[in-house]
Design goal:
Low-confidence stretches: 7-29, 33-56
Oligomer: single chain
Strand order of the largest sheet: 7-6-16-15-17-18-19-20-21
Number of helices: 17
Number of strands: 31
Mean pLDDT: 85
CATH topology of the domain at 2-67 and 401-478: Luciferase, domain 3
Length: about 575
């Protein structure tokens, strides 16, 4: 059992809590502003201990709560209380109505683990899950991580070529697909010269291969002998520098994150009482961790929908009396404005939660009023942070804010130009994060890792924000150029590379075009090298990418693409020049 309070050494952050409460506490965080001393200590000191003339200060916000992680393997942490929940319902297929109890889920995971070993999956191997949401996501994840293997999650909208790239980078040995992506996964594996190791997991396809005569002794089939630093999950992210990268999340990252999320100040759930409606893709870090694994670890019931379909979601909330759901901004917009909502009883919803991008204050108020909620809480995070970093404290109605640091987490703002820490409310700077949920690094990309994680453990998010006098954080812009559309991340460089491969394109740049609650859509600016139509280039790109990556913002021919002296595209100037 490990206690994690994210104690910070003075050399790193000038904050050294002696207990779970330190310095000036405001609700659930600590904000400390103090001068940098030459001797690295805190508190009063002789004048000679200070740096002469220039005395910089630092402002850190850290939760006053620590966490305890009772075990190392993430599967063990999730399943450790299954015996207590036993006959309570763990999973419900929101379309068919099929249910699985915690006892049945545990037995199934053991059978999956046995099957994995029989087909040659070993500790340290990687398996891939690709497809739409299904109950078997839980089986594959828990069995794989339980025997010491890692899981990479792949979006079912990827093309076979894009999927093959992820399989190659992650070195996935087997792919577990749903019916809608099975053929695509086969095609992707053929491109990696490994065409046999794909299994369909939904509709009972895999269950026919499982042994039915296994003695249900968890310890005999699951290998919990892993270290904190062993990789458990590899989601793919555009990162802060462009092209997709494998994010190495360790058992230590995930056990810490699940312990953080279940804290009373974050997302506590009641066994047998809470019912979580999950339609956010579980191939997305938030859908997997918040929508599936966290509820299971706390003994709550998860109602799984393949994807967001308005009628299906509303029906599921009404039928199963859903108490919690993770809502992307477009869903919040739907709930606030669509007449269909009035036809359903959604009164069971108590504590909906939103992430992916910041919600507008007026839209939030409108949804809360319409559904007669006490409020809707917002959070902040990314794949590289497992994913949650900050969230609204319970009862906080500071709409538009991403909240405050969760337990065992510290945040600060840094001037992206000077590198100085910012100390005053309202000052805009890059959000930096430190905590046990911060990734190990980018898979096979040490240089990219060093660019975003400092030698003393701070992760640079690439997001510009500020905090107010109460310590609430707000995101206002991004340093990184990632386009966010419906919660998906789209790397401009990825689309630019495809455009540049066309013989009629000399230069290309892609920026995000705002489209309200959906975020942004990609718009391309192209300098042609020979006559070509906009339609030809748009089709050229769209045929090679997943639907969410398409050039929905169109394509514009231009004579100039602004660049810095080093040749970097100055994306912010493109829209200004066109305007």
């Amino acid at each position: 059992m490990r206690n994690r309070s994210n104690s910070l050494v003075a050399e790193d952050c000038l904050l050294r809590p002696a207990s779970t409460t330190a310095y000036v506490a405001v609700v659930d965080y600590v904000c400390s502003v103090f001068p940098v001393r030459r001797d690295g200590l805190l508190g009063p000191a002789p004048t000679s201990a200070y740096v002469p003339m220039v005395i910089p200060t630092r402002c850190l916000h850290t939760s006053r709560f620590s966490i305890t992680t009772p075990c190392t393997n993430v599967a063990e942490l999730i399943m450790r209380d299954f015996g207590q929940f036993s006959n309570k319902t763990a999973l419900i297929d929101g379309k068919s109505g099929e249910t699985i109890s915690f006892c049945e889920l545990e037995n199934d995971v053991i059978r999956y683990a046995d099957f994995f070993r029989r087909v040659g999956i070993r500790s340290g191997d990687v398996v891939c899950i690709c497809g739409s949401n299904t109950m078997e996501f839980a089986h594959v994840f828990l069995a794989a991580t339980g025997i010491g293997a890692a899981v990479t999650i792949a979006n079912g909208q990827l093309t076979s070529l894009e999927l093959s790239d992820q399989i190659k980078i992650s070195k996935a040995k087997f792919v577990f697909a749903t019916e809608d992506t099975f053929r695509k996964c086969q095609e992707a594996l053929q491109l990696t010269n490994n065409s046999e190791n794909v299994f369909q997991i939904d509709h009972g396809k895999l269950s026919t291969m499982l042994s039915s005569s296994i003695h249900v002794d968890r310890s005999a089939f699951l290998n919990y002998d892993v270290s904190d630093d062993d990789v458990a999950l590899v989601p793919f992210s555009s990162g802060t520098t462009g092209l997709p990268k494998g994010v190495e999340l360790t058992h230590g990252n995930l056990t810490a994150q699940l312990s953080q999320i279940r804290h009373p100040t974050v997302l506590p759930l009641t066994p047998g009482d809470d019912r979580v409606i999950t339609m956010l893709p579980m191939v997305h870090i938030a859908g997997l961790m918040i929508g599936l694994l966290n509820p299971l670890a706390q003994g709550a019931t998860v109602v799984i929908l393949p994807k967001f379909v308005p009628e299906d979601f509303l029906h599921a909330v009404e039928k199963y009396k859903g108490t919690f759901s993770l809502l992307a901004p477009p869903v919040v917009n739907f709930l606030a404005n669509d007449p269909m909502v009035d036809k359903y009883d959604l009164s069971s919803l108590r504590d909906p939660y939103s992430g992916a991008s910041t919600l507008g204050k007026e839209l939030t108020k409108k949804m809360v009023h319409r559904l007669k909620l006490d409020g809707i809480r917002q959070g902040y995070g990314m794949s590289e942070t497992s994913p949650v970093v900050m969230t609204d404290p319970p009862g906080n109605k500071q709409y538009g804010s991403i909240g405050r640091p969760i337990p065992a987490t510290t945040t600060k703002l840094v001037d992206p130009n000077s590198g100085d820490d910012l100390t005053k409310p309202g000052e805009h700077g890059e959000i930096w994060v430190k905590g046990p949920q911060v990734m190990k690094g980018y898979l096979g990309q040490s240089q990219s890792t060093q660019e975003v994680i400092t030698t003393d453990g701070w992760f640079k998010t690439g997001d510009i924000g500020y905090f107010d006098k109460d310590g609430n954080y707000f995101v206002v812009d991004r340093i990184k150029d990632i386009i966010k559309y419906k919660g998906y991340q789209i790397a401009p460089a990825y689309l630019e590379n495809i455009l540049m491969s066309h013989p009629s394109v000399r230069e290309a740049a892609v920026i995000g075009e705002p489209v309200g609650v959906y975020g942004e859509v990609p718009r391309a600016y192209v300098i042609p090298s020979s006559p070509v139509s906009e339609e030809t280039l748009i089709n050229y790109v769209n045929e090679q990418v997943a639907p969410y990556r398409r050039l929905r913002g169109g394509l514009v021919f231009t004579k100039e693409i602004p660049k810095s002296p080093s040749g970097k595209i100055l994306r912010r100037l493109i829209g200004q020049k066109q305007a």
